[in-house]
Amino acid sequence: MSSVEEESDREASEPEKVEEAVSEETSESAEEAKEVGEADEDLTPAAEVDKWKDVAARSQAELDNYRKRMAREKTEAIVYANRNLLEGLFPIIDNFEMGLKAAQDGEGESSMIFQGMSMVFKQIGDFLADQGVEIIPSDGVAFDPNIHEAIKQEPSEEVAEGQILYTMRRGYRLKDRVLRAANVVVSSGPAQG
């Protein structure tokens, strides 16, 4: 056989090899499509487009919700960042108030010690106000378990039942969160018997 004939035979057999390779790839693709299509058997192209549009819309909504949640958490972290520091100051303030009361009772309001302590106490109050801390009102108001902690009940002829007689320890809140509930004594109404 001449070289020209061998080349023509080779060229003739190459398209057959290409066709075999294409048919193998096509059958593999068909099998893969069949496996994927089993989950979405009866989807028309329009239904499949709608399905993927729905998936995209849900993903977009989830991303928006995530962004909003992260922004809200960041804002809360900034607003309430000093919470632990402020909670640590409250016992110190309580002790300072006891010292102020003792200075007032011992030497009177005209003493230099009382006046100096009063100025420092005012500065502490201003600092707390600048930080957004408020004193929870407790004397002479109705007992609220959300912001008050009842230590005990006492009978009272003057104060109605459920009203606070006096405060044992002040309560504080930062913006809308209670940092420390006020410890109070609640009236049980007039003594019976």
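Next protein, fold it too.
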Amino acid sequence: MIASNTRRSPYYGWIQVSALSITQLVGWGVLYYAFSVVLAQMQSELGWTTAQATGAYSFGLFVNGLTVPIAGRWLDQRGPRLLMSIGSLLAAVFVYAWSQVTSLTALYIVWCAIGFIMSMVLYESAFWIAAQWFRRGRGKALTLITFGGGLASTVFIPLTSALTIYLGWRAALQWLALILAVLTIPLHALLLRRQPQDHGLHPDGDSHLHETAHSEHGDPPSQTLAEVLRTTDFWVLSLAFTLSTLAWNGISVHFISYEHARGLNPAAIAAAAGLIGVTQVVGRILLTPLADRFSRRKIAYGLFLLQAAAFAALLTLPDYPALVTYVICFGIGFGVLTPIRAALVADVYGVRNYGAINGAMSLSGSLTRAAAPVIAGAVIGAWGYEPVLWSCMLASLCGLIALRLVRSKNL
């Protein structure tokens, strides 16, 4: 690709991540959260069982896990603009196609495509841009990107619910497809650029290199994916974040049914579920920028402990104190770890091959995200909720131990 000589504003990186905050809000809201809202009406009309319908959603997440590394390699070689623009267009097309399905086979085909599209337009691609355009401000940039993603459930679950109630699930999806097209395609196509060096800039908008590669806030010399895969640290770090994903997705899908089984007020449960998204955003605003000044590794230690505390609260505290503690600890612990993980990959391995390395590290986590709810559901059906909660707490603590075992000096 021929580099552009067009001089850009030193604030152009912030323009991009501001746009990405909007597109992540819409992308996560439609591609990830809408399914659970339209599920009941879709099942009722088409006569599918819960297992049949949710199997398509899990299949999509599985495909997403397999294709994230492919998207990462594309980003390293060609940049984000074409990938995310085409992904946004395809997202709108296949959400509309979802509104037209009449057979289970068609639903699975649509969700296979949506799973691939997720790898093109959601966090992993957006994080690549933050890694390229920022060093000192990387934590703030990731906070802004994940601000939108964190609010996706808070905005789009009620919106999708209202559209579904008043218009029906098919019309609701058609409106969501239109929202996707209007709010994501133009922003991705018009604003995204590959690297600041192509526009006479350096990371953070500097007109000259503010730091050397080995300074406090600089990135280490970049490594190739082949080199990284031969290190123990890569696999241990991947294990740490996979265990976190296991804990998150093992209980999140079953949280509402768990609280109903405990006999809590349905209104309180609904409010708590909505507040988890709010606590994620608050945690990201307060903690992620601190990682630009302090050790991201130490912040991650605290986040793993908060995750474990969330499950310990459900296991040991009375009903409503347990609910409040869980919402705070779960939201902050899991919400903040998402941008921290993205920054750690750049801290340890550099940015030149960030897409391929981050994609490889995300593979096991993405596959776990697809499998964990199914496995947890089987355990709950056989032995109840407590074994799942204990397993999630232990997974969080084991993730902390794995992170401590990473020996890289750049972490």
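About the second fold: Confidence is low (pLDDT under 50) at residues 211-217.
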